[in-house]
């Protein structure tokens, strides 16, 4: 079986969660190196050394820049991409249009949040996603989703039940923690004790406004205030106004992020809506106790330190206070969190993909 | 309805097919996939295999190998060969029909440059083809033109009584696309023809002859190369007629060492070459269709071509245009394409890929099948 993986997301300057999935899947496939399966990567042109070669798979390139590649796909160009392979897997809704007579197609649909919360997406983004989703649903492609929640939303959007498969994500993709870099960053922020960490793009869906508010409230009531470190690239929407004790540190590389997970007193993640929720799983992998809002799919059945309603500032604040005041409970949930995260390996994710492709080809 | 049995004359298609030869190969392949046409291909004695491989229903390999022998054959024995094959119509894909065609004939007219620009052709060919076109137009039961451009010019120069069909060429989208055929394939193919990755490459494709605008291109390149040391020019295509003037232009070129004259480039390497180009130049003075321009667009390349030609009809607003015959204007158009903003460059390249996607050989074959049916149906009144 020859499998082509559309890895264009890894050509983005900020690959984000979709990029993590794409790299994790490729790493998992590389670790498995399954017999009788050849993998190739499809992507746009880069000059010089191709970072995609780190996975050890051959890369088929177009002569288009990343930007032009995305534009071309949006206009339905590229229906003959990957004609040599038996399976063509798109790691997101962006990709070559699927044509009849081509390879077996599969598409990872990460979330449909633009439908559920149109006000939390840019109008242009919503239009693009809607059109891409309609094409995906109308095609004969297998649809993969990271959680049962998204499966339900996809069925509501018209996808046939037997075409949608849930495959969760892995937690073992970050490099070893760079504790020295983490300590240096914390020192620059003037932090020398326990702190809250959160990771997300600064965009409305991630609910950072309420989190900052709740954090302020918890600190005002608390006996021992913890600062809040926000990791993540600038996104869009109203600018987040940091308060005292809030540190926006921007984007961090994987090793620094792992260091921050290991150094933090607790990890908090309270999006209003999430397709999967990789950051709290990463936090558990690195031994951080986690506070999560209800309905984060990756945390269903997970040993969280506290849960809260994402829309209730007081509730979030209470959860933070509860965790800050329970030293023994934190250590216990952190340990159980490691065990939970250890069940989420990218090689298992890759094996589930292979299984799905084999069953359908 | 049973399939129409039609013969097609492939006796003049060289082994290294380009231009009209490529058309003939592609149309035989596309027609062979239809169930309403059964093709019998007339070929030279040594040339049956590739036509059978394309899916032709039958091959009649009896024509002599030499050019003169073929011409005599077409005037004498071809008619009886057609009769022997039991076809209902005969198609001459390159301007000519046999002198005594026992069944209704269909002829393809590619361009009218033998009438309009005799100076760009060998004089012997001008005499032969102007007569052949007039004969074919007068005796054909259906005429296929490769573009509306050619159809308009045909009626200016010869008397046309048969219905005229416009069947634009297709692009082989399996080969001509922005994506390389397999991982690392383009790099290897380019290395195979001696090309590396380092330079900013202007590519032109087509038989090297004056009407392709090659001399203008060499002069335009020389002007640009004087100020841009990273530029190189790649001329891909077999040596044609009038090479002495092209060779002289090459000799005069100050940047001669950055011009690569590749000769005939094997099919597999052509899309790789187009994909590697910073700009593809197709400054041809006159064409019937200009397929190489469309193939460049299909590969996602930037294209510079002539505004006063069929390319302007076919390629829409994707290319950067230049008037034909002006090296200065061509240099300016090449510079504009090379220095275009990423936004403009991407818009035009995207538009080019969309435009090229509309041209397929199966669409061309559908028009051919219709022309065959009309010609065959005319037999009662013309060939009773």
**Dominant shape of chain B:** globular
The succession of helices and strands of chain A, N to C, reads: EHEEHEEHHEHEHEHEEHEHEEHHH
Could you say how many structural domains of chain A there are in total?
2
Q: What structural category characterises the helix and strand content of chain B?
A: alpha/beta
User: Radius of gyration of chain A from the CA trace?
Assistant: 21 Å
CATH homologous superfamily grouping of the largest domain in chain A: Glycogen Phosphorylase B
CATH superfamily of the largest domain in chain B: Glycogen Phosphorylase B
From the helix content, strand content and strand pairing of chain A, which structural class follows? alpha/beta
Mean pLDDT of chain B: 91
Number of helices of chain B: 17
Widest sheet: strand ordering of chain A = 3-2-1-4-5-6-7
Gross morphology of chain A = globular
> What count of domains describes the coordinates of chain B?
2
Low-confidence stretches of chain A: none
The greatest interface between two protein chains, and residues involved on each side, is: A-B, 24 and 25 residues
Strand content of chain B: 15-25%
Major β-sheet profile of chain A: 7 strands, parallel
What does this structure look like?
The complex is a heterodimer of chains A (361) and B (384). Chain A is built from twelve helices and 13 strands. Chain A has 361 residues and is an alpha/beta fold. In chain A, strands 3-2-1-4-5-6-7 form a seven-stranded parallel sheet, sandwiched between helices. In chain A, helix 1 crosses helix 12, helix 6 packs across helix 8 (254-263) and helix 7 packs across helix 10 (313-324). The model of chain A has no long low-confidence stretch (mean pLDDT 90). By secondary structure, chain B is an alpha/beta fold. Chain B is built from 17 helices and 13 strands. In chain B, strands 3-2-1-4-5-6-7 form a seven-stranded parallel sheet, sandwiched between helices. In chain B, strand 8 (200-205), helix 9 (214-225) and strand 9 form a beta-alpha-beta unit.
């Amino acid at each position: 079986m020859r499998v082509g993986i559309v890895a264009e997301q890894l050509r983005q300057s900020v690959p984000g969660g979709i990029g993590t999935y794409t790299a994790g899947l490729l790493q998992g496939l590389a670790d498995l190196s399954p017999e009788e399966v050849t993998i190739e990567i499809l992507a746009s042109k880069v000059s010089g050394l191709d970072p995609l070669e780190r996975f050890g798979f051959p890369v088929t390139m177009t002569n288009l820049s990343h930007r032009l590649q995305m534009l071309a796909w949006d206009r339905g160009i590229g229906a003959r991409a990957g004609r040599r392979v038996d399976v063509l897997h798109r790691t997101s809704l962006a990709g070559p249009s699927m044509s009849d007579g081509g390879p077996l197609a599969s598409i990872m649909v990460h979330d449909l949040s633009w439908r559920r919360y149109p006000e939390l997406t840019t109008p242009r983004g919503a239009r693009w996603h809607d059109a891409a989703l309609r094409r995906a649903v109308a095609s004969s492609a297998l649809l993969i989703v990271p959680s049962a929640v998204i499966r339900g939303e996809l069925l509501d959007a018209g996808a046939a039940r037997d075409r949608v498969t849930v495959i969760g994500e892995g937690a073992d993709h970050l490099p070893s923690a760079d504790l020295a870099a983490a300590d240096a960053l914390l020192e620059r922020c003037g932090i020398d004790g326990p702190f809250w960490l959160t990771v997300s793009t600064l965009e409305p869906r991630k609910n950072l406004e309420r989190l900052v508010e709740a954090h302020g409230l918890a600190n005002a009531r608390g006996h021992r205030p913890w600062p809040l470190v926000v990791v993540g690239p600038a996104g869009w929407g109203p600018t987040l106004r940091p308060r005292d004790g809030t540190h926006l540190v921007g984007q961090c590389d994987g090793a620094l992020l792992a260091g921050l997970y290991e150094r933090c007193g607790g990890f908090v993640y309270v999006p209003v809506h999430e397709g999967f929720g990789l950051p709290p799983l990463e936090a558990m992998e690195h031994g951080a106790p986690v506070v999560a809002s209800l309905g984060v799919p990756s945390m269903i059945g997970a040993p969280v330190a506290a849960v809260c309603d994402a829309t209730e500032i007081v509730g979030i604040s209470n959860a933070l206070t509860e965790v800050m005041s329970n030293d023994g409970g934190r250590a216990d949930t952190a340990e159980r969190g490691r065990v939970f995260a250890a069940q989420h390996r990218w090689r298992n994710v890759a094996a589930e993909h292979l299984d799905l492709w084999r069953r359908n080809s | 309805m049973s399939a129409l049995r039609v013969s097609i004359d492939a006796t003049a298609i060289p082994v290294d097919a380009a231009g009209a030869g490529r058309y003939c190969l592609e149309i035989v392949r596309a027609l062979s996939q239809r169930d309403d046409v059964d093709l019998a291909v007339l070929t030279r004695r040594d040339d049956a295999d590739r036509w059978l491989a394309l899916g032709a229903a039958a091959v009649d390999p009896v024509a002599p190998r030499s050019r003169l022998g073929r011409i005599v054959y077409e005037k004498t024995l071809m008619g009886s060969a057609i009769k022997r094959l039991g076809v209902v119509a005969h198609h001459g894909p390159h301007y000519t029909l046999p002198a005594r065609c026992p069944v209704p004939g269909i002829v393809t007219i590619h361009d009218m440059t033998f009438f309009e620009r005799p100076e760009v052709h060998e004089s012997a060919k001008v005499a032969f083809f102007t007569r052949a076109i007039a004969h074919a137009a007068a005796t054909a039961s259906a005429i296929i033109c490769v573009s509306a451009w050619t159809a308009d010019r045909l009626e200016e120069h010869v008397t046309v009584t048969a219905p005229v069909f416009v069947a634009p060429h297709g692009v082989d989208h399996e080969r001509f696309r922005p994506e390389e055929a397999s991982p690392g394939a383009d790099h290897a193919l380019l290395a195979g023809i001696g090309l590396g990755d380092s330079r900013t490459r202007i590519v032109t494709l087509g038989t090297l002859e004056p009407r392709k605008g090659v001399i203008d291109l060499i002069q335009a390149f020389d002007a640009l190369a004087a100020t841009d040391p990273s530029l190189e020019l790649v001329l891909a295509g077999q040596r044609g007629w009038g090479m002495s003037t092209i060779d002289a232009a090459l000799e005069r070129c100050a940047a001669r060492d950055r011009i690569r004259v590749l000769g005939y480039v094997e099919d597999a390497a052509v899309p790789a070459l187009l994909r590697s180009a910073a700009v593809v130049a197709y400054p041809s003075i006159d064409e019937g269709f200009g397929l190489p321009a469309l193939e460049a667009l299909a590969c996602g390349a930037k294209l510079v071509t002539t505004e006063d030609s069929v390319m302007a009809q076919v390629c829409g607003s994707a290319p950067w245009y230049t008037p034909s015959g002006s090296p200065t204007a061509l240099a300016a158009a090449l510079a504009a394409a090379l220095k275009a903003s990423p936004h403009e460059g991407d818009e035009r390249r995207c538009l080019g890929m969309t435009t090229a996607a509309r041209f397929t050989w199966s669409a061309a074959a559908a028009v051919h099948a219709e022309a065959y049916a009309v010609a065959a149906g005319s037999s009662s009144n013309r060939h009773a």
